[in-house]
């Protein structure tokens, strides 16, 4: 009998782009309240409004059957989800899944890094926006840098194939730390990506007032480091530069200064089972009702996913000059 993975239809959108990467949020909850991601006083979803871990595993299996080879588990903070490790163990060995990766704030890694590696997680992205404890606490509102650095050390000790820091620079907040963060990454022989702040969610400031262009950050770093353009790709939107005479690559995810939509290969699934075809658009397909109406029949879910390719937009529409955000949902809702 032919392998289902090789005979199933692939996810090709109306612009000829193949979707082979999904980002699945397993919770909207987080133990931090980062200023660019959440409001200080969040109202979280009730348990029955969120995909069960079994439903998450089922969705991943279906997407892998449809040609997806990379899955990133996100949140909120995914590792605060009770029994999250069960999900990693369940999907980590799926045939056809080449990369199981994780984005985390690092707060739970000291306890869970070794088990995640054993479950099949290959790479981890850890959000670190400052190396100054008081500033880190102001940005995260509730986070403690020492706890995150303990998690980073545990991840390094666990031996993942790749560890990367994710940093959002904000003007007059932490933009003076770009060089220090790169030096930290070089010291620990890990990578770092700078992510331009995105106009998502209701915020108490205009994004234009805090926006830092990755072009400016690159120029700033080039004045201190010898950077070599790299063809490296992690399967996502980052463009990389290799630090000369070091094991560190610097990535730039630039939705404003360099629109990356022409090569978009991914979709996002919120913890509510909403299939978002673009981070910067509201187009979505509700998968949770189908999962629950057809608990033993994948066909309606597969049909909905295949049909969604016809509404995947050409690109996002971020505009920092707008009075209102492009998308009125927090990053924690869609998934980091």
What can you see in these coordinates?
There is one protein chain. This protein is α/β, with parallel strands linked by helices. Helix content is 30%, strand content 16%. It has twelve helices and twelve strands. Strands 7-8-9-6-5-4-3-2-1-10-11-12 form a twelve-stranded mixed sheet. Helix 2 runs parallel beside helix 3, helix 3 packs parallel to helix 4 and helix 4 packs parallel to helix 6. The longest helix has 14 residues. It is globular and about 55 Å long.
Strand percent estimate:
15-25%
Strand order of the largest sheet: 7-8-9-6-5-4-3-2-1-10-11-12
CATH superfamily: Aldolase class I
Number of helices: 12
Quick rundown:
With 336 residues, the chain is of the alpha/beta class. It has twelve helices and twelve strands. Helix 3 (84-91) packs parallel to helix 4 (109-119).
Topology:
Blueprint (H helix, E strand, L loop, with lengths): L3 H4 L13 E5 L27 H13 L4 E5 L9 H8 L7 E6 L4 H11 L3 E5 L5 H8 L4 H14 L3 E6 L10 H11 L2 E5 L11 H4 L3 H9 L4 E3 L9 E5 L5 E5 L12 E4 L4 E3 L7 E3 L1 H6 L5 H10 L22 H4 L2
Parallel strand pairs: 1-2, 1-10, 2-3, 3-4, 4-5, 5-6, 6-9
Antiparallel strand pairs: 7-8, 8-9, 10-11, 11-12
Helix pairs in contact: 2-3, 3-4, 4-6
Name a few traits of the molecule.
12 strands, disordered N terminus, TIM Barrel, alpha/beta, single chain, 336 residues
